[in-house]
Structures are given as C-alpha cells and as structure tokens.
Automatic annotation (TrEMBL):
It comes from Streptomyces natalensis ATCC 27448. Residues 57-339 form the Fe/B12 periplasmic-binding domain. PROSITE patterns: FE_B12_PBP. It comes from the Bacteria. Residues 1-19 form the signal peptide. This is Iron transporter. Pfam families: Peripla_BP_2 (PF01497). PANTHER family: IRON(III) DICITRATE-BINDING PROTEIN, VITAMIN B12-BINDING PROTEIN. Gene3D superfamilies: Nitrogenase molybdenum iron protein domain (3.40.50.1980). Keywords: Signal. The lineage of its organism: Bacteria, Bacillati, Actinomycetota, Actinomycetes, Kitasatosporales. Coiled coil: none annotated. Belongs to the bacterial solute-binding protein 8 family.
Length: 339
C-alpha cells in the first residue's frame, strides 16, 4: 500500500503513481511484450528454469503471491487464485478490482485437481505455501501433467533435502520474484518501476530509523501455545523489522518461518512483540494469551504493553512489504523515544 505523496510536484507525482500497477491502475502493455516470444529462462530457487512461452492461465496460491501478479498488472493472465478467507479485507487494498475480476477458485488447499480444472499452464506457490512433498503437489508433479511451476523465492529450500527455507534476504526475494515474473511475462518495465519504487519506500523509512543504540528489540509472534511459530532471517518480518528500525531478536535463525522455545523468547527479552494477524485465532486472542502467559510476565514487551498487530499479507513476501516497513517504523520511533 503506497504512502500518500504531499503536494509539491503534485500533478506529476500523481500521474506517475497512477502509471504504476501497484496503485491498482490499469496499465498499458509493456513495450517489450509480444505474444509469441521465444522461451524464457529464469533462475528460481537457484535452478535455471525455462518456460516455453508466457503463461496465459496462471493459478496462484495465497494472498502475497496473488498480489505479486496483481501488482505487475497481470490479472488478465490468471485463471484464478486459491486463498483462505482469513487474510484480511481485500476491498481495502489497491488491487481490489483485480480481486473482483479474477476467480477465487478455492478457500481451502491448493490441489492438482484445482489446477487441472482451471486449465492452468502455470502454478505459482511456495514450499509450505501450497507446494509440499507431503501433499504430492510439487513443480515436478505438475510438470508431468503439462503444467509449469514457479516457487516463491522466500520459501526456497536451502538444498534439495534441507528442511530450512530461504536462500536470500527477504526484500531481495521480493525483488527477485518481481524481476523474474517481469521477464517471464514480458513486462520488465513494470517490474523495474515497481522495484525502484519499493526500494525508495524502504530507503525513506530506514533513513528515519532510530540510532543503532536506541533500536527496540522485536519478536514476531505468529501463533502457537506450546512453542511459538516465528520468523527467522529469511522470512519477510526480518527485513520489515530491521529496515523499520528494530533489532530482530531471531535474526540468527537461518530459516524462514519456524518454531522456537518460549525460553528463548524470555532470554532475548524483546522490547516489542509483533503479532501476525490471521487464522482462526484472532489478534485479540493472541494478545490475551501473551499478556496472560506466566513465563512471559517479566519480558519487556509484556510489562510495558508494547504489542503491535500487523496483517498476514504485510509479513509474508508480498507487494505490501515496503508500506508495512513504513508503518512499523513509525511505531518503533515512538517506542525508541520512550513512548
């Protein structure tokens, strides 16, 4: 969600913003796009992957991946998306018209049958974001059905047999996917414009971050009672917290989304806890649990009631990440100032 610009070069700024797909505007076809292009090869999770032609019936899994397509203005290339209905109000986002135009195929789990019924020629998902060896849905299994696959970079496995996920910093993963999809669909100009705009948003927020010695320490709480699910160095919250001016207490975890022990949270004593708002357990219920959970009673964030709620789509890899950094930065500046 882009920040509002104030008047100055107001008309020019507004026109420039409207020209970007991330603002929800319809965009003209990219000058480089042609319907019958040669095969395109992109590096996906470290593997050069060749696509014979630009896909025309894409199925995406989950909100962040779906909005990557929308931000690039590619809703006309989509056969539909799969997404639970616990991911917030999509009528409040810049891509609300795209959500109305593109079929919502299922509110449950992505399956081969859904892809086949949609006559998909490409499925974009991630490991544990739709793809999984346990459910038999993988790019390799889709290839046998004549359907190409693309793996969300945030979710890449460290290696063929590694359980840990993530191979690069989260914002770099976002930019990589935008650039790869831009090449695949022949909309490189759109992708470059979005990446440049997002980098500026992030740089503007980071420039206002508290001095290193005053940065609040931050723990991301996704869910879980016995053990909390949190974010490591390769999940979106790491860069969101860091660029916003916080010290991510789980930055040493070389994984994306993973569990830790509560004793680790207590030992690291975060100044702020960010709640990931989604799922059957509401943000209010998660907050109530944290505030009442005995082992956390002496943790700084709990003692000072510094709990900040962010939406799921802000925290997973998505076009909402840069604006999420700006929003969190404002809160962390207040904390650093003693608020």
């Amino acid at each position: 969600m882009p920040l509002r610009r104030r008047p100055a070069a107001a008309l020019l700024a507004t026109l420039a913003a409207l020209a970007l797909p991330g603002c929800g505007a319809k965009v003209a076809p990219d000058s480089r796009h042609t319907a019958g292009r040669s095969p395109v090869t992109v590096v996906n999770c470290g593997v050069p992957t060749t696509y014979a032609r630009p896909p025309r019936r894409v199925v995406t899994n989950d909100v962040g991946i779906t909005e990557l397509m929308f931000a690039l203005g590619l809703e006309d290339r989509m056969a539909g998306y799969v997404m639970p209905d616990d991911k917030g109000d999509v009528d409040a986002v810049p891509w609300k018209d795209a959500y109305r135009e593109v079929p919502w195929l299922s509110k449950k789990t992505l399956t081969k049958e859904i892809a086949l019924d949609a006559k998909a020629d490409l499925v974009i998902a991630g490991w544990n974001y739709g793809f999984g060896e346990d459910n038999g849905l993988t790019p390799a299994s889709l290839k046998k059905l004549g359907i190409a696959g693309y793996v969300l970079t945030e979710s890449c496995h460290h290696g063929r047999d590694a359980a840990a996920r993530g191979v690069m910093p989260p914002l770099k993963a976002l930019y990589t996917d935008l650039e790869n999809l831009g090449r695949l669909f022949g909309v490189q100009d759109r992708a470059r414009a979005l990446v440049a705009r997002y980098k500026k948003q992030v740089a503007d927020a980071a420039a206002k971050a508290p001095a290193p010695a005053r940065r609040p320490s931050v723990f991301l709480y996704d869910d879980g009672r016995d053990k909390p699910l949190t974010a490591g160095a390769y999940a979106g919250p790491h860069d969101i917290i860091t660029k916003a001016g916080g010290d991510h207490v789980m930055k040493d975890l070389k994984d994306s989304w993973t569990t830790v022990g509560w004793e680790t949270v207590v030992a690291r004593d975060p100044d702020v806890i960010v709640i990931n708002n989604y799922g059957d357990t509401s943000a209010a219920q998660k907050k109530a649990f944290l505030m009442s959970y005995g082992p956390l009673r002496n943790v700084s964030a709990i003692k000072h009631h510094r709990i900040y709620v962010m939406d799921y789509a802000d925290l997973v890899e998505s076009p909402r990440n840069p604006a999420a950094i700006a929003h969190l930065a404002r809160y962390l500046r207040t904390v650093a100032a003693g608020g």
